[in-house]
């Protein structure tokens, strides 16, 4: 993996880690379910108007949107609005990796001893972090964030089953799923009055920061971050790229420390380290060709910035997509961001 590609992977991890600060800012003004709906609405509109339909059955688009777009973010935003610190949320959401491994094994995927150990280690780390949530009011946000990781894992499985040659198209069309269900949930649970008040008072310093947070989440973290990540995943083994996602909680915890003044306890830092170790164990090794080198999947000019595979036959594209789909348990941290 060239140095410039490694730097791009680090950049994505930074963009995604800082995103938790942006989410925190948005939740200071808007109710959580409404925030999720607004987060996805611009991407959904762009997908419907500008992006070609992905080359996968609709059931995978819907399942991806339900798991990744609805369940993950409904629980994550609910948890953070209920008191889950932004930095710890960036760490606890990594529970998606062991959840993906376990769910894949339940559906018949091979579970190696290494990945099984990684699941146990990651869960131990989450248990350590959760043990520091002393009372019920603190435990509940932690549980909600873990459920967000489970939603992410369900989305992961949908992407792996879809085996799309155009992952960015799939992500954009997935964004069509969340807005209406989340808006309906917001109207029922949070109520029109609360939504109206948050919109009426948006012209304020807190409101301006909230809007900036929404723009960052939708455009910078999702579009820019996802685009770069998908481009990297198309050119390197999943096991090479995916571990860089473990820099997300490092960035998230650091940004929350600097910007929000959050100070995890020593035991929580220990739990963080254990979770990171467990997730790295679940990552495994990326797929390689017979010659020992990864064969990147074929996309089109709309999916990747500049370098588009040319002159590759249909057989190469098929082989590449299978290689990507059968990679590490963390392959489908593509193309997405919390």
From TrEMBL:
Residues 315-329 have a biased composition (Low complexity). Residues 7-129, 143-282 form the EamA domain. Its main location: membrane. Residues 286-338 are annotated as: Disordered. The chain crosses the membrane at residues 7-27, 33-51, 60-80, 86-108, 115-132, 138-158, 170-189, 209-229, 241-260, 266-285. GO terms for cellular component: membrane. It is a multi-pass membrane protein. Pfam families: EamA. It is found in: Membrane. The keyword Phosphoprotein does not apply. Keywords: Membrane, Transmembrane, Transmembrane helix. Signal peptide: none annotated. Belongs to the EamA transporter family. PANTHER family: AMINO-ACID METABOLITE EFFLUX PUMP-RELATED (PTHR32322:SF9), INNER MEMBRANE TRANSPORTER (PTHR32322). This is EamA domain-containing protein. It comes from Knoellia flava.
């Amino acid at each position: 993996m060239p140095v410039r590609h490694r730097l791009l992977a680090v950049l994505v991890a930074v963009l995604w880690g800082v995103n938790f600060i942006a989410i925190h800012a948005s939740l200071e003004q808007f109710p959580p379910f409404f925030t999720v709906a607004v987060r996805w609405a611009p991407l959904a509109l762009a997908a419907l108007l500008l992006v070609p339909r992905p080359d996968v059955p609709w059931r995978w688009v819907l399942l991806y949107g339900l798991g990744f777009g609805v369940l993950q973010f409904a629980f994550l935003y609910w948890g953070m609005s209920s008191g889950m610190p932004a930095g710890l949320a960036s760490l606890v959401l990594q529970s998606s990796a062991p959840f993906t491994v376990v769910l894949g094994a339940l559906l018949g995927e091979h579970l190696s001893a290494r990945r099984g150990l990684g699941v146990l280690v990651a869960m131990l780390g989450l248990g350590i972090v959760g043990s520091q949530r002393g009372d019920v009011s603190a435990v509940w946000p932690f549980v909600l964030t873990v459920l967000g990781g489970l939603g992410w894992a369900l989305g992961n499985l949908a992407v792996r089953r879809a085996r799309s040659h155009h992952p960015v198209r799939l992500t954009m069309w997935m964004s069509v799923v969340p807005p209406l269900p989340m808006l309906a949930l917001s109207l029922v649970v949070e109520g029109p009055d609360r939504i109206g008040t948050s919109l009426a008072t948006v012209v304020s310093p807190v409101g301006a920061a909230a809007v900036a947070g929404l723009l960052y989440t939708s455009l910078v973290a999702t579009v820019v971050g996802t685009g770069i990540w998908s481009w990297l995943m198309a050119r390197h083994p999943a096991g090479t790229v995916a571990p860089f996602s473990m820099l997300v909680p490092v960035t998230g915890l650091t940004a929350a420390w600097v910007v929000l003044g959050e100070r995890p306890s020593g035991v929580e830092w220990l739990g963080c380290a254990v979770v990171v170790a467990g997730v790295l164990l679940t990552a495994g090794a990326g797929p390689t060709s017979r010659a020992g080198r990864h064969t990147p999947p074929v996309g089109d000019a709309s999916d990747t910035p500049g370098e588009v595979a040319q002159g590759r036959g249909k057989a190469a594209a098929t082989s590449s997509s299978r290689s990507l789909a059968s990679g590490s348990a963390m392959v489908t941290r593509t193309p997405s961001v919390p």
